What we know:
Blueprint: H1 2-14, H2 16-25, E1 29-34, E2 40-43, H3 45-50, H4 55-58, H5 64-68, H6 71-86, E3 92-99, E4 105-116, E5 122-131, H7 133-148, E6 152-157, E7 162-165, H8 167-173, H9 177-180, H10 191-206, E8 211-212, E9 219-222, E10 228-240, E11 243-252, H11 254-275, E12 278-284, E13 289-292, H12 294-300, H13 311-317, H14 320-334, E14 340-347, E15 353-364, E16 370-379, H15 381-432, H16 438-466, E17 475-478, H17 479-489, H18 491-497, E18 500-503, E19 508-511, H19 513-529, E20 538-546, E21 549-555, H20 588-598, E22 603-607, E23 613-619
Parallel strand pairs: 18-20
Antiparallel strand pairs: 1-2, 1-5, 3-4, 4-5, 6-7, 6-11, 8-10, 9-10, 10-11, 12-13, 12-16, 14-15, 15-16, 17-19, 20-21, 21-23, 22-23
The structure holds adenosine-5'-diphosphate.
Adenosine-5'-diphosphate binds at residues 522, 526-527, 530, 556, 558-561, 569, 575-577, 584-590, 613.
Amino acid sequence: MDYLRKEFYDSVKLNDTIFDFIQNSSLDGLMYWDLENPGNDWISDKFWDTLGYSPNEILNRPSSWRTTINPEDLKSVNKNLQKHYDDPSFPYDLTSRYKHQNGSTVRIRCRGLAIRDKDNKAIRMVVVCSESPKEKESSEKFRQLLEIAPDAMIIVNNDGRIVMANQQTVKIFGYSKEELLGNLVEMLMPGRSASHHHHLVGQFFKSPKTRGMGSGMKLFATKKDGSEFPVEISLSPLKTEDGMLVTAAIRDITEQKRSEEIRQISDRLTLATQAAKIGIWEYDIVNNLLQWDDKMFDLYGISKSSFSGAYDAWQKGLHPDDVERSEEEVRLAINNKKKFDTEFRIIWPDQSVRHIRASALVQRNDKGEPLRMVGTNWDITERKRSEEIARKMASLKSKSKEMEQFAYIASHDLKEPLLTIKNYAKLLVEDYGSELHGEASHFTTSIVKASTRMEELITGLLEYSMLGSNHRQLKEVDCCKTIESVLHDLGGLIKSNQALVKTENLPMIKAFPLEIKLLFQNLIQNAIKFKKEGIQPIIIIAVEKIDGGWKFKIEDNGIGIAKNHKDKIFTIFRRLHKQNKYEGSGIGLAHAKKIVELHNGEIWVESEPSSGSSFYFTILTELL
Ligand code: ADP
């Protein structure tokens, strides 16, 4: 078969393609050294590829392989080479450690054959290199493991330089492997955390064990385009012949963070809706499916089992008068004509009526077709009730204002003609009294009496209608002084009835001075007037501090008031007795009530017939 060998030799000599094929395929490197010009080495690209270098990086560096071989191993290489040069029977076959570009170690077996001149002197050397199969296998396995990892995996040496990175790293960070390898790992993190990271790396190398990085800290990584994203990093030490390396698994947790945030938002929303008692519903327009959360069932007073989940089920709960309008609102919202934000009434199974406020958003597809409605319901029954009460109060207030105006005008205008009647009747009595006999005299005297009384009543009415009509200022009123002045004014009445009025220490209050005096005067006057036959009237005035003001009590030992009259007595012109028994106009307590109300307070009486009465009133002006 020698002809084949010869032919092959010739082919290699003549045909570069065959030579290129050989040097690129079977081996992990091929070298051809000129021993007569040491340092002139031809080294195949494949050799540098095995060590992770691109041939351009190495080109024109004489004996460059000597700089990548482990210095210890170089010694034995030189020794063995020399032996082989000197003795052709000594084979050159040595496995040595080379430094990979990424810092790792690659074991390469080199076998060499010296080419000699006619004097048997070695002038050239052919070296074939192959990566040690074991080494090759395990590093390949490791590389594969790195590649199948779902996370970005990088290996960093203790200088903080990246010596290995998987494809996922390339994908996540946007750098090519060439850009990553040999560079500081800080290129993958935001500038602000780089120095802290350096510190962390230092700490890790001091006590290398597998752990999460910066636990409890929010870690961020930076892509090539400068954008940042949240990461979780776990570190594990990797012992190698070249020292300690660290494997970092970097996980992009953007999605995790987002779903965590969404969960937090949804939790907060749930809390808020629960606190605000808001029910949430979702209507699948296409399939006519209505979904309610638990609160919705509470709002409609029905159980889950009695709800069919269809649009009609909601309609059934509506107040009949609100069905049409509410349906129209839904239709308008679905047709994108109007925002759904409305109120309607619902009827609970126990027939009670509740008011609901509802709002919703309509979700549509790309074509604008409605798909779903998501909305809220909440109960506004209480608000509606208070609005109704406020409306009624306002209308009552305006009616009572009208009444007061009427009373004022009527009493004012009536006074004139009444005075004329009274004066002429008086003149009649004075000037012609002697000429009037019998019934005529009695009639005229009665006219004078009646018109006098009517004048009193009209004056009372006029005063009543004018109470609080002009805007006066609340003032600091000394109740002691006020009572003193009242007792002084009522001196005659007190004396003639031998009444005893006891007061305790009375406070300074914020009040309308004239009105307060009138209030005490009316109540003390009544307490004396409605005394029990033959019993000395004793009146006690007491006071108690309450929230926002004061509570007064005026207690007497008089005739008392029957239970069914307790409220009536505060109505104007309402009297319980004949005029000839107890004089009066029936205006005093109506006055008192109006004055108390001017001071934001209330008035009431506690009494039993013939056991005396206690009139209470509150003055709540402190917050005004
Ligand atoms: P007047 O005293 O002019 O009759 P008021 O409005 O002051 O009118 O009182 C209304 C009615 O309330 C009185 O007619 C009386 O029947 C009853 N009343 C008021 N104060 C007392 C009291 N201290 N004891 C018993 N009855 C009272």
